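Usage

Read records sequentially. Each one opens with the input sequence:
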Amino acid sequence: MILTSASKFCYLGSYLSNTIAMDDDITARIAKGCTAFGGLQHRLWCEHGVSLKTKVEVYRAVVLTTLLFGSECWTLYRKHIKQLEQFHMRCLRKIAGIRWQDRVSNTRVLELCGISGIEAFLLQSQFRWVGHVVRMPDFRIPKQACFGQLASGCRLQGGPVRRYKDSLKINL
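and closes with the structure output:
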């Protein structure tokens, strides 16, 4: 019997790969967020009788939770945050009825909708998760994985791949 290993697979809605790249997971999350957003297109976003505040709250409850599922353990680079931010702003502009021809800045759109940027949501979820892990007893696997060190070996020279701990230090 020949055993083969998969280079990537989907587990609980997140893509895991033999490299630690987040590209596939981010793309899949954006696609799922787009599906959730599109499902409410004619029922809510295009409905003129519903207030903007209600639309934004539904967006936060349905679309953002779908988009950011599992984001507490993502190791993100600037390109990933930019992709997520573009999707977030595209959705908010659609909800608020702002076209690109109106030349409204992203900060103004966020103010109108009364919501923060996607990076704030990412940092909040990551800090919440790390706070939970820090308070765990030392024998728990998530704490050992997060704060453990290799007994021997070193990282490659050049631009080593960013670890979760590295991104937390940068954000703190």
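Summary fields computed downstream for this record:
- Residues 48 and 97 are 10 Å apart (CA to CA).
- Residues 8-117 form one domain.
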